[in-house]
Amino acid sequence: MFLSPATPATVTVLACVLARPLLEAAAVADSALRVGCVTVDDLIKAVAERKGPGRARLLRLLELIDPESGSVLESMLRYLLVTNGLTPQPQFQVRSRDGKREIGRFDFCFEAERLIIECDGRRWHDPDDVRRKDRHKDNELARLGWRVLRFDWNEVRHSEAYVLAVVRDCLELAAA
What we know:
The chain is an alpha+beta fold. The chain has 9 helices and 4 strands, in the order αααααβββααβαα.
């Protein structure tokens, strides 16, 4: 399919979904949603109108996207978790015990197990002042009985088995 600068964003996203591995396709769709090039409704409508080859893949994409995803790293970690049978709540907010103070909004959460998972991309988590804030939030979460896992790009992209094992072990510990 030839895509020109005048090709609608929805068509471009769907072309990427059909041409790229599903992991990359989910990240592309999330990125397009994040910057406002497309909406979830646009994608649903385009998929509903599609007949024939690729429709099942497009339907699967609709299960994997998250318009609130904050980064490509988050999209990739969510894909890894979901496609391996783990379904965390994305963009989870935690408040203080009395509910008056927000501790923070976190990338992923398994609420019943009190497990938070954060993606530590360099852009958002590398500066010293941000690392200090992250530690403060982690400490506040620990005070409330939460466990926090943090994964970076290399772990999510190159150590998938490690990431899955750590998450599963923590979920198992919480269930015991």
